[in-house]
Design a protein that fits this description.
This protein has about 260 residues and is of the alpha+beta class. It has three domains: about 1-25 and about 235-260, no CATH class; about 60-150, wza like fold; about 150-235, Outer membrane lipoprotein wza domain like (Outer membrane lipoprotein wza fold like, Roll), CATH 3.10.560.10. It is about 30% helix and about 20% strand. It has seven helices and ten strands. It has helices at about 1-20, 70-75, 90-95, 125-135, 175-180, 215-220, 235-260; strands spanning about 60-65, 100, 110, 115-120, 145-150, 150-155, 165, 190-200, 200-210, 230-235. Strand 8 and strand 9 form a beta hairpin. Helix 1 packs antiparallel against helix 7.
Length: about 260
Amino acid sequence: MRTFKILFLAIIPTLLLLSSCANVNSNILFRIPKGDEFKFDSLPLKPSEDYKLGVGDRFSFLFGTNSGEKIILNQSGVNTLNEGRNNNNALMNQQRNQFTYLVRQDGYVNLPLIGEVKLSGLTIVDAENTLIDLLAKNYLNPFVQIRLVNQRVIIFPGKGDAMVVYLQNTNTSLLEALALAGGIREEGRANSVKLMRKTEKGREIYKIDLSTIEGLNEAQMIVQSNDYIYVDFKSRIASSILTEVAPWLSLITTGLLTYSIINPN
């Protein structure tokens, strides 16, 4: 019986250890394949191209005639004599309500005064010019301003909760985006930050080292909507295995102790 107990105590933990190894750090995402085949893309400090509207984007749409004359007058508090001081015109309501419009799956947007128009695949400037051309058929010197309201990046700051960070500033830097996500976690590796960006060629992957003062220049890289930012983290194999095995070892030890009490021989 003693020999059986020794074998049991030797074999079971070994099997548990081997099974637990498969689960260690299984939550790591975007692993880089081993070897020299994989090459990171060259790091652009500024986006190589302007952001293009895509399916699911939402934006606010501001419109005024006479090259935006009413927008300036209302923002400055000045009204024309004909309109009077208490004039609640359509432009003021538009600014107050801040309606947003969705780019549908077919790439089209339904806009007031214009109707259905395809904006998917256009930059903000191109979309504004498209709307100006359409409105110019019925209005004098139209002014159009489009502002994206759901620009966001997804950040995995090391071990811990991932975050969706909405970009209030179109010139948000990588360092600012990480700060909005609470910074790099304790187990995160500042020398191994991966940024994945969607382009017409697919996702480009850049590697950034923020662990030294030389990385300050890379930290100023401008992020773009729909970027994925992933901070690698240190693999703590021993503690991870212990966490996996500990409940089973406790159960086995309790079982053996109980068995020894019931069968002392």
